[in-house]
Design a protein that fits this description.
four-stranded mixed sheet, elongated, 8 helices
Length: 283
């Protein structure tokens, strides 16, 4: 918790990532189809929704809903057919964790965890929505696909999505956007239960109908980088406003790193960015 009792969420990264966040005052959000731990991850929510659908009365247009769901699922998986012909919705994700000293996340992403004020981050998210016209966004905990652990609020939301899809396929509404947007957002939040020890939060932004130039708006350009395996990774920069200072409350240096040496350069960067109140602590 921060001194104002706001929850802190941590973003794990390596030395280059930490320097980049501090120097640019931005966070990278990666295209969702890249943000997965296994080939099945994009389908966890789809499969759960279809299980819920099977429990619905016969009055639901189950066959048509299944066809619509499968068509959306196919679009999401077609991303790797070629970036140049990319026609999928633009959905970008950046990840957090409430635990600032997770050994598994340090091993996976790097030895530093950046602690953000969750409430202020959510306020910045709403500003991004207004500035760039995102029509999909949420800042929620990940739901791990285990029937016993799926919260009641998520079950209710899935039922609402099924109702929206049912109204659309029955012709009761022409609002395809409403019928599909909540489905896509939930796709980004479901993961396999074997990763539940990460207790992940995800900040998600996106557009259902991106333009052909692969830009969110004329000011929010999709960029590309390569990972260590040479894979091309699409990403966008969040909060890239010259007047925005990220609400970083603390930076934890992992136990495997030299704390004193790291503290010197991190605090120097913090002073340059007028972030002297950010703590640098040893993990």
């Amino acid at each position: 918790m921060t001194k104002n009792n706001h929850e802190i969420l941590y973003h794990y990264t390596n030395e280059d990532g930490l320097k980049g966040v501090l120097e640019s005052q931005t966070l990278w959000a990666t295209h969702y189809t890249i943000m997965r731990n296994d080939e099945k991850e994009l389908r966890h929510f789809t499969e759960y929704l279809l299980r819920r659908l099977s429990e619905k009365p016969i009055t639901f247009s189950k066959r048509k809903i299944k066809c619509l769901v499968k068509s959306i699922d196919t679009v999401l998986h077609n991303f790797h057919d070629g970036i140049e012909n990319f026609s999928s919705p633009e959905i970008y994700v950046t990840c957090f964790c409430p635990d600032g000293n997770s050994k598994s996340l340090r091993n996976k992403y790097g030895g530093y965890s950046i602690g953000f004020d969750k409430q202020v981050m959510d306020e910045l998210r709403h500003m991004e929505i207004k500035r760039f016209g995102f029509d999909m966004s949420m800042f929620n905990p990940v739901i791990y696909d285990d029937e016993k652990n799926i919260p009641e609020y998520s079950k209710r939301e899935v039922d609402e999505i099924i109702d929206e899809l049912n109204n659309y396929v029955k012709g009761k509404t022409n609002d395809k956007k409403k019928a599909v947007t909540n489905f896509l957002l939930n796709v980004t939040l479901f993961k396999c239960n074997k990763w539940s020890d990460e207790h992940e939060f995800r900040l998600v932004v996106g557009k259902l109908y991106p333009n052909a130039q692969l830009t969110m708006t004329k000011n929010k350009t999709v960029k590309y980088r390569k990972n260590k395996d040479g894979q091309v990774i699409p990403y966008i920069e969040l909060f890239n406003d010259p007047y925005t200072i990220l609400p970083i409350r603390e930076i934890i240096v992992g136990a495997s790193l030299n704390y004193e040496d790291n503290k010197v350069w991190i605090e120097r960067l913090l002073r340059e960015k007028r972030m002297e109140n950010t703590r640098v602590i040893s993990g």
